[in-house]
Design brief:
The protein has one domain. The protein has four helices and ten strands. The structure holds zinc ion. The site of zinc ion (ZN) has 7 residues, from helix 1.
C-alpha cells in the first residue's frame, strides 16, 4: 500500500512517512488540491455560520474573575466549503492535506479588526452586563502580551450501521477577559491604557440602542 502526497504527488510506503513529509516540506501550505470540488456557499449559509461563531463566542464571555482565561468552542458539523470560504484568503491560513485539516489564526489588534470583517459584525467579541456595566471580551492585546484567536477545521468520520458519515468539526480557541470601560478606556486600572479597540463606547448611562448584546446585527462596514 502506498500513501500519496496530493500536494507534490510523491508516494510513501507508510502514512507516518507521508505525515512527516507534509510537516517538513509543506509546512506553510495553502493549496487545496480538491478546491474545485468545494461549492461556493450560499449567502444564507454563510450568515448562519457567521452567526453561530458570534453567538457561541459571546456565550463564553462573562463578567467575573472566573470567566477569564482560555476558552474553546467546537461546532461538530461545519461545512468545509464554508470554512474555506471564510478563511482561505488570510495570510495565516494553512491546509494539511494528509490530515485533512485547516487552520487560521488572528493576532492582536489587526486580527481583531479582520475578524470583524470576516464575521461581518462589529461587536462579535464583547458583551456587557446590564447591571454592573462590566464588559466581557475576547482579549487580543493587553499591556503584557498579544493574544490570538485560532480556528481549525478537521474531518471526522462517524460510523452508523456500517456506513461512514464524513463531517467537519471546527474548533475555535481564544482568551477572554473582563473589565469596566468608559469611552473605550478601562477604568479598573489607571496605570495602563488598554488597547481594546473593539470595545464600543460605553457610558455610565448605558445607551441600549448603541450596544447590542447579540443578534440582530447591522453589517460591519469597513
Ligand atoms: Zn509533498
Amino acid at each position: 500500500m502506498s500513501f500519496k502526497c496530493y500536494l507534490c504527488q510523491k508516494t510513501f510506503s507508510s502514512r507516518k512517512q507521508l505525515l512527516t513529509h507534509e510537516r517538513t516540506k509543506h509546512k506553510n501550505n495553502k493549496t487545496i488540491p480538491h478546491l474545485h470540488l468545494l461549492h461556493q456557499p450560499t449567502f444564507e449559509q454563510l450568515v448562519s455560520y457567521q452567526d453561530a461563531f458570534i453567538v457561541l463566542i459571546k456565550k463564553r464571555l462573562g463578567f467575573n474573575r472566573h470567566s477569564v482565561g482560555s476558552k474553546r468552542l467546537s461546532i461538530s458539523v461545519f461545512p468545509e466549503n464554508v470554512f474555506v470560504h471564510l478563511f482561505q484568503n488570510e495570510p495565516s491560513f494553512r491546509y494539511n492535506s494528509a490530515l485533512r485539516k485547516y487552520r487560521c489564526t488572528f493576532k492582536g489588534e489587526a486580527g481583531e479588526g479582520r475578524l470583524k470583517q470576516i464575521l461581518n459584525y462589529e461587536y462579535w467579541n464583547c458583551r456587557q452586563d446590564p447591571k454592573t456595566k462590566t464588559t466581557g471580551y475576547v482579549l487580543f492585546v493587553n499591556s503584557e502580551e498579544i493574544y490570538e484567536v485560532s480556528f481549525s477545521w478537521a474531518q471526522n468520520e462517524l460510523v452508523e450501521n456500517n456506513r461512514i458519515f464524513q463531517c467537519g468539526t471546527v474548533i475555535c480557541t481564544f482568551t477572554t477577559d473582563s473589565g469596566e470601560f468608559i469611552n473605550g478606556n478601562e477604568v479598573t486600572n489607571e496605570n495602563h491604557t488598554s488597547a481594546h479597540s473593539a470595545i464600543p463606547t460605553i457610558t455610565k448611562t448605558n445607551n441600549q440602542s448603541q450596544y447590542r448584546f447579540i443578534l440582530p446585527r447591522s453589517p460591519f462596514k469597513n
